[in-house]
Amino acid sequence: MAAPWEDVLRNKPAIQEAVTVAVDAALLEGVLMRTEGEPNASDVVNYAPFTLLPSAVPSALFEQAYAVQQDFNLLVDAISQNKEFLEHTLASTIQVDDFTAQLFRIHKQVLEEGLAQSVFLGINRSDYMFDCGVDGKPALKQIEINTIAASFGGLTSRTVAVHRRVLKVLGKSEEASRLLPNNPSKGLALGIAKAWELYGSQSAVVMFLVEEVQRNIFDQRCVENELWNRNIRVIRKRFRDVFEKGSLDYAKRLYMDGQEVAVVYYREGYVPENYNQQNWEARLLLERSRAVKCPDIATQLAGTKKVQQELSQPGMLERLLPGRAEAVARIRATFAGLYSLDMGEEGDKIAATAIADPNRFVLKPQREGGGNNLYGEELRQVLEKIRDSPERTSYILMDKIKPQPSMNYLLRAHSPLEVSECISELGIFGVYVRQGKEMVMNEAAGHLLRTKAIQHADGGVAAGVAVLDTPYLV
Ligand code: ADP
Ligand code: MG
């Protein structure tokens, strides 16, 4: 995809001027992050990293990604209600992966007790790259779907204005006017507000469950603001606050400090490091409650890499979404090759193939948050070591997606300005609300484009690798 800005990319004075404007615009618009040095204070903040220029995205693939989002919402929701599927799919994983096993134990316990929750809220983000096939035609391929704590819907709502300004400064007003508006924070908030309303208690609050270290607080504040604007009270608490001050009444209503909680929106709880014994107890308390969890633990499990791999098995989507052939076809078209490393002949074979040709694959453990996957020589070494051990079942293999790079400037505070060869990842936010068996909301709520230099195989914005971007449709 040729970037439409080739003419200005090497024009250093023009670029320098645009950078100055861009950084101030980012601060002005609120594209902000707390600093590494003071991650829990807002006294010193800086701009969140972003590209100087919007990146080209093929419009057909962009539309395809939006068109399949409601299907993915239905799929995730269906999986979360399918006890047998989750049990069967995660059986081998929970033997070797303690984190998934612990989540699964809570899931089972809550089901055995009987669900107190009757309203369900899903906020997810389906991520894609544009794979450059042998024919050179780019294809939309899903990287993963994030069903818990999908971030940057807030900050990305504010980056369009920055990129519009940059293009104008560079004399590209016409192109600036073509950048699409994008406001996931509003869409996410509308989902939370709907769930809050259906919960049915005017005095109840929405609780954002947040991390101990909150560098990305402004992203969350964007969503929070939308709720306050609708007169919905938001509180921010950590697991340890829940452990100390959370309680359930006789009807399993959740209270924090005497305040009833209608919705728990997790921006935490997706990696093992988020938990100690107390935090697990707090998680169990929340899951047992009547409050709407976004996501409930079953939906979190639906977002595991192992589930993603199982979905690519022949006939699986048809079983999960009966009578929805068109949705199934749209979903399947976005799948890259995914392979199980379960013990057995099939697993032996694909492990051998990957060891022989590691650059064709990505090796993924059951982890979220970036920086966990293995590539190339490292993939080969690890797989060679575990190929005959059940440990290999804690990973899946995936075909490596190979996008066409393009040139851009990645702006990061305190970093030198240099042009980089980059690739992008497009995410679409999905929001849905279900009451009992009835879907009352099912939407695509906006998008996120993240871009990184090609030398980084892995890692997102929070991990300091990717930066925020805006799609320029071509
Ligand atoms: P995480 O849950 O850690 O975010 P992902 O599956 O999103 O895990 O992988 C992290 C990053 O690794 C992605 O953002 C992408 O840059 C890269 N990646 C993941 N899968 C592939 C793939 N199949 N081909 C190429 N790059 C990939
Ligand atoms: Mg990811």
From TrEMBL:
Gene3D superfamilies: 3.30.1490.50, 3.30.1490.80, ATP-grasp fold, B domain, Glutathione synthase, substrate-binding domain superfamily, eukaryotic, Glutathione Synthetase, Chain A, domain 3. Residues 204-302 form the Glutathione synthase substrate-binding domain. Pfam families: GSH_synth_ATP, GSH_synthase. Mg(2+) binds at E144, N146, E368. Its cofactor is Mg(2+). Its EC number is 6.3.2.3. ATP binds at residues 144, 305, 364-373, 375, 398-401, 425, 452, 458. It is an enzyme of class 6 (ligase). It comes from the Eukaryota. Substrate binds at residues 125, 148-151, 214-216, 220, 267-270, 450, 461-462. SUPFAM superfamilies: Glutathione synthetase ATP-binding domain-like (SSF56059), PreATP-grasp domain (SSF52440). Pathway: Sulfur metabolism; glutathione biosynthesis; glutathione from L-cysteine and L-glutamate: step 2/2. Binds 1 Mg(2+) ion per subunit. One of its GO terms (molecular function) is metal ion binding. Keywords: ATP-binding, Glutathione biosynthesis, Ligase, Magnesium, Metal-binding, Nucleotide-binding. GO terms for cellular component: cytosol. It catalyses: gamma-L-glutamyl-L-cysteine + glycine + ATP = glutathione + ADP + phosphate + H(+); gamma-L-glutamyl-(2S)-2-aminobutanoate + glycine + ATP = ophthalmate + ADP + phosphate + H(+). Belongs to the eukaryotic GSH synthase family. Homodimer. Catalyzes the production of glutathione from gamma-glutamylcysteine and glycine in an ATP-dependent manner. Glutathione (gamma-glutamylcysteinylglycine, GSH) is the most abundant intracellular thiol in living aerobic cells and is required for numerous processes including the protection of cells against oxidative damage, amino acid transport, the detoxification of foreign compounds, the maintenance of protein sulfhydryl groups in a reduced state and acts as a cofactor for a number of enzymes. Participates in ophthalmate biosynthesis in hepatocytes. This is Glutathione synthetase. It comes from Grus americana.
